[in-house]
Amino acid sequence: MNHETTRRELLGHAVRGAGLLGLGGVAVYLTAKAGDEGVWVLDISKCVNSRLGATGIEACELCATSCVRPLSAVRAINDFEKCGRCYICPAYFDVMSEVDENGLPSAKLCPRDAIKREPIGWVDPDDPANNFYEYTIDEALCNGCGICVLACKDPSGLGSILLEVRYDLCLDCNRCSNAAACPDDAIDRKPLSRAGAPQRHPAS
Ligand code: SF4
Ligand code: SF4
Ligand code: SF4
Fold this sequence. Notes:
Strand content: 5-15%
Bound molecules: iron/sulfur cluster
Helix content: 10-25%
Number of strands: 6
Strand order of the largest sheet: 1-6
Largest sheet: 2 strands, antiparallel
Number of domains: 2
Structural class: alpha+beta
Order of helices and strands: HEHEEEHEHE
């Protein structure tokens, strides 16, 4: 074995060692995250914006304003399995605004214009109301204010838009300021295994 080979072997051992240490660090982190401490989870059945029976109220925007992140780690998602793909979605349109020349409300509801509306398939020009529309939330714009969530709630909507703590964006603070601010005790720590499917959308 010559001198050059020995140096290469040593280098190889060092790189492999560093890689293993790195993998070990990630494994320790994931184990800690999934352990007893758990992750912060928003229980939509408790959040006033989703809770059935809570009517005639303003949206609770505390998740948008209390999070330590400049753009809250709580974001809205549209559960497409529940969404009716309505022609006039009360979460997309401000249904109290004036009707425009197309017979649609002239204003949108989301203050950050974070909801996109796309027709599904071919649109009948003589009767666009006969078509279905897909409503997608741009998570890079959404701040989790909950206004659309309240508007989509039964009976005006089908309750398909929900708020969730995005695990990939959450800083996992020891004391979540959203949980502290929530009047409904809707945010709590849960073991990752009981927290439901994390990150139902790609990171923004
Ligand atoms: S939660 Fe607020 S910012 Fe996000 S999509 Fe709904 S209305 Fe827009
Ligand atoms: S734990 Fe921190 S980053 Fe995560 S939602 Fe709560 S306040 Fe925001
Ligand atoms: S603070 Fe509580 S009630 Fe208000 S939006 Fe957040 S989870 Fe819902």
